[in-house]
Amino acid sequence: xxxxxxxxxxxxxxxxxxxxxxxxxxxxxxxxxxxxxxxxxxxxxxxxxxxxxxxxxxxxxxxxxxxxxxxxxxxxxxxxxxxxxxxxxxxxxxxxxxxxxxxxxxxxxxxxxxxxxxxxxxxxxxxxxxxxxxxxxxxxxxxxxxxxxxxxxxxxxxxxxxxxxxxxxxxxxxxxxxxxxxxxxxxxxxxxxxxxxxxxxxxxxxxxxxxxxxxxxxxxxxxxxxxxxxxxxxxxxxxxxxxxxxxxxxxxxxxxxxxxxxxxxxxxxxxxxxxxxxxxxxxxxxxxxxxxxxxxxxxxxxxxxxxxxxxxxxxxxxxxxxxxxxxxxxxxxxxxxxxxxxxxxxxxxxxxxxxxxxxxxxxxxxxxxxxxxxxxxxxxxxxxxxxxxxxxxxxxxxxxxxxxx
Length: 405
Hints:
- By secondary structure, this protein is an alpha/beta fold.
- It has helices at residues 14-22, 46-58, 79-89, 99-108, 125-133, 147-155, 181-186, 238-244, 258-277, 288-293; strands at 6-10, 27-30, 62-67, 93-96, 114-116, 136-140, 162-169, 204-207, 210-216, 231-233, 248-251, 302-303, 324-334, 337-342, 346-347, 351-355, 362-365, 370-371, 379-380, 386-390, 400-404.
- An eight-stranded parallel beta barrel has the order 1-2-3-4-5-6-7-11, surrounded by five helices. Strands 17-16-21-13-14-20-18 form a seven-stranded antiparallel β-sheet, covered by helices on one side. Strands 8-9 form a two-stranded antiparallel sheet.
């Protein structure tokens, strides 16, 4: 029986964790408040981590804890406590990127499997085998690899070594994410999870003899985004990834909203389940509605990265494509009335789209709108306010309602 591929979703905080679990993640990756590569999200303290692990396990999902920064001397003394807390919380693996960290993890949390982060820059089978020999159970391969290279790594490494690859999300312009631009331009260390993303900024050329004259590299009114990588999207290539030997399909985005976590997890869950149901057919393709879902989150133009060779790149576009906005989250449905918790303003007369886990979205017209007390209102302007909307079909709690922009 072929091993089922894992859908691995980001969880930057408790709300994003709930979204990933609601929409079918097999596993989530997250961080405590230190030693993770994303400082922007809230992340989890020790108490919250234990609660997150318990919630995920109740849903049958695994939790992988990041410790993938490159720590400085003064941080080393804090690592034993971090690993002991991780083990106590019951996480399913540690994601690590530094040889010293690997050694300390084996010493202070010896029972926890080790996943080698993409920050380590694994691009060949020799490195993967050495990491396996020192205790790694999984390597997260560098995003610069082609499917052919991944297949060779799979063929030349122990079958027990799992291979994880990114399938969706933002792409760093630096090799395996090891970048110094943020350190130089913003004083924020990318290798400590504090990247200011200066590769997304607009750049112009200045000639010293004419400092007041600024020239864009591309002839566009928006400037030039010469460092700005497009976003990865492999939803139509699940068979290619699987047959190359990828064990885990990883979605980037711990710093992104719960809506993003929900929509991307749902799309890859449905696509992966469809692929499995097809008998792992090489010509499997997801339904069009699944492919379309990934256009409904905020994203840069999509690419397939390096999987099929050198990626195409839009050097003159640095903004996001944003077609939809989450309007509310379903709380309860009874007797033809849907109770929701508002997230962004919507009004009577709007047409909303309801996304339930594993199902194509359906349209809901806001023919009437009531507040939590049942009083008729024309608009829902207040964040998290309870509203009631007539709806002739049941809706699962936690489902998302969104509005086209």
